[in-house]
Amino acid sequence: QVRLQESGPGLVKPSETLSLTCSVSGASMSGFYWSWFRQPPGKGLEWIAYIYYSGVTNYNPSLRSRVTISVDTSKRHFSLKVSSVTAADTAVYYCARAEDGQLGDYWGQGILVTVSS
Amino acid sequence: QSVLTQPPSASGTPGQRVTISCSGSSSNIGSNTVNWYQQLPGTAPKLLIYSNNQRPSGVPDRFSGSKSGTSASLAISGLQSEDEADYYCAAWDDSLNGAGVFGGGTKLTVL
After folding, report:
1. Residues of B in contact with A104 (CB under 8 A)
2. How many Å from the N-terminal Cα to the C-terminal Cα in chain A?
3. Is the pLDDT of residue B27 over 90?
């Protein structure tokens, strides 16, 4: 059973960097895309970025300048950093696995990150 | 403003068939496959349909997807109370350097 679990601080101050990690269990990371999404309270889903197990990355153009995604297959996790956060970055952040052509088949439960001083 | 366009709401009575539309463009739905997600309140999205019309293992065959040109549809037959949820379409978009794009979501109410 593939399981993904997000972890990281639930509260980040404005202008600081949000850092999240997604731990993967129950499956190899090889051959898959590993993605981050977010959902502001009461709003729809937004794709943030993906990283292929080999390290190839792709970012949402609207967030590209502030986002970094990385993977450590030996530790079976991948990470997200969002710099210079504002209140608009407050959201539930989800990590997910995807096969070619999909956006995500297995998803983590999500983690609420609030940006506030 | 979402790249893909969905109706904000839909409704039906138990046993009915309901369809949810998703409109895009040549750079997303027109040239890539469509995914559909179901999101129950307070939970993570669940993949319902991939590759326009394929169901992952465990998804009931009451759920079906189709695509024509730059539009796609999700159909739910034999509507059940537990189908009350938000539904999102999604696809990759070639005009945005292969970015993932979503519809704004459709809230399905079972009357």
Report:
1. 35, 37, 45, 47
2. 39
3. yes
